Amino acid sequence: MIKIINTKDDSDSIREEVELLLNRSQLEFGEVNRSVEEIITNIRDNKDKALLEYTEKFDGVKLENIQVTEEEIERAYNNTDKELIEALEEAEKNIREFHQKQMTNSWIDNSKKGIILGQLYNPIEKVGIYVPGGTAPLPSTVLMNAVPAKVAGVEEIIMVTPPSKDGGVSDNILAAAKIAGIDKIYKAGGAQGIAALAFGTETIPKVYKIVGPGNIYVAIAKRIVYGFVDIDMIAGPSEILVLADETANPKYVAADMLSQAEHDKLASSILVTTSEELAEKTKKEIEIQAKSLNREDIVKESLDKFGAIIVAKDMDEAIYYTNEIAPEHLEIMVKNPFEMISSIKNAGAIFLGEYSPEPLGDYFAGTNHTLPTSSTAKFYSPLSVDDFVKKSSIIYYNRENLEKNKEKIIAIAETEGLEAHANSVRVRFKDAE
After folding, report:
1. How far apart are CA 325 and CA 20, in angstroms?
2. Residue 213 φ/ψ, nearest 5 degrees
3. What is the pLDDT of residues 161-207, one digit of tens each?
4. Catalytic residues
5. What are phi and psi of 299, to 5 degrees?
6. The pTM is what?
């Protein structure tokens, strides 16, 4: 089911394995692109009419009212299991407290006489959140995307999510939306839901930024509308890398790798270890534990195509491959995990020790589970308050300081051939010449 690659034996195979991981989710699907472009154009031109037609076509339900009513939200909240409500409310509290620590204040520097420079932080006014529906509704996704926006001070949060066959929305998703304080919710899924947020319809307001995960149609739609609105990231299939030494428990390692493999057939689960014994025991554990999973077929295909156990010569080599793969989720199961942090350059979220499994971050700890995938952790960060604020520069020079520096500014402008730029400064001192 899952292969073991020992770097002592075959360096070419490991290079091929890493390349396979890095390229597994390239979003270059010509037919899908064409379909999504057509959907976006239709929504942009025909708005609610097109949206209702696509909802009937793709979701199998004919809607009269796109917006979720307050009564529906209250009913869903009351129908949701009370234990789940308590868990979601505590998770919301943890997420809020974590993200409050990310807040940055506007600042002003007037240390030089006659010069004021600064930066002004303002929240984005309208944000759209996409929440997948389907067979496994994700209330955690609602919290992870909405709470940082609320902390940042976003004035209006609009959520879209696909309706079920009966025209409703999952009680769990609506309960999470109530807990997170989402302002408006609409029954609109897929590329058409993204287009509705990006361009607006008679019913759904246009937003300035769209966040949230989805299938390939949603991902491509987000990529196409980027520029008309901002987006968080193009999320690929889920992935985990466990970095472990001989002290790691193979049962825990196997369980955590399987927790990602069950997502879908493109998910990637990798163990990088310095211990051949751990590699063999983990492989056996994976085979044993997978048999009891209700998504065993998905798990097997995921591990067969995109799973690997890499046995490195030493910890330096193990860390090298970890940083090269730049995983979405990185679990460090070594004797002293805190000593490893400074060596990790590329990872979405880092889980330290054997009692910090990946689902802890997915659901409860407070860190965000919207993370960079497909090696984009080399240049992307987890979703945060920063994603929901924008910055404006503040510049003030008095006459004396502008005059002191005018020749330098004019010299740069004229070097670039921009005479009007130079004149914009020069004209202010012509009367004095």
Report:
1. 10
2. -85, 170
3. 999 999 999 999 999 999 999 999 999 999 999 999 999 999 999 99
4. 328-329
5. -60, -45
6. 0.93
